[in-house]
Structure formats: structure tokens, C-alpha cells
Amino acid sequence: MDHQPEEVRYTRVDQDTCISCGACEMAAPDIFHHNDEGLAFSIIDGNQGIRPIPEELLMDLEDAYDGCPTESILISDSPFDTAVHSGDNNE
Ligand code: SF4
Fold first, then answer.
1. Mapped to the 3 state alphabet, what secondary structure does the chain carry?
2. Which fold would CATH assign to domain 10-76?
3. The pTM is what?
């Protein structure tokens, strides 16, 4: 058999485009919640996209991704680079 149990996904929400519709939290309540402003974020790692999504939640993640009307849910097979704004400081 060729089953691959080691599927690794990372996710975060682009809050610049999120319209607070709530669909992702309904589809994946163990991954996405909303902050005080109604914007969605990943509770897996504080919306940083640096911790792998548990395998048992990957189907929920797919559902949330497919259901987001603004394509604000970002998915990658490698950690998102959170240092992009802090590591390149030209004087
Ligand atoms: S489904 Fe998309 S637009 Fe709706 S709350 Fe979630 S991230 Fe925001």
C-alpha cells in the first residue's frame, strides 16, 4: 500500500481580506476562531502558520478553505515566514 499518513499542512488567515462571515469557524471549529473584531484566526499557533495542523483536522481545514468566500484562508505545506517584516532592516 502507498498510504502517506505524514501529510503536513500549515494555515493562517489573511485578516486584510477576511469579511468575518464565520464560515471557517463552523467548518473547522478546532482550527479557526474569531477575535474581538470578528476577524478569523488560527488557534493552532495564534495565526502564525508555523505549527502543523493535526492530521485529524485536515478534512475540516479543507472544508474551511473551500468555503471561505474571500480566499482568506492560506494553506501551505511548509511553515509561513513570520519574520518577513523584521529581518531585513536596511539603515
Ligand atoms: S470563512 Fe474566510 S472570510 Fe469568512 S471568517 Fe473565515 S477567513 Fe474570514
1. CCCCCCCCCEEEECCCCCCCCCHHHHHCCCCEEECCCCCEEECCCCCCCCCCCCHHHHHHHHHHHHHCCCCCEEEECCCCCCCCCCCCCCC
2. Alpha-Beta Plaits (3.30.70)
3. 0.85
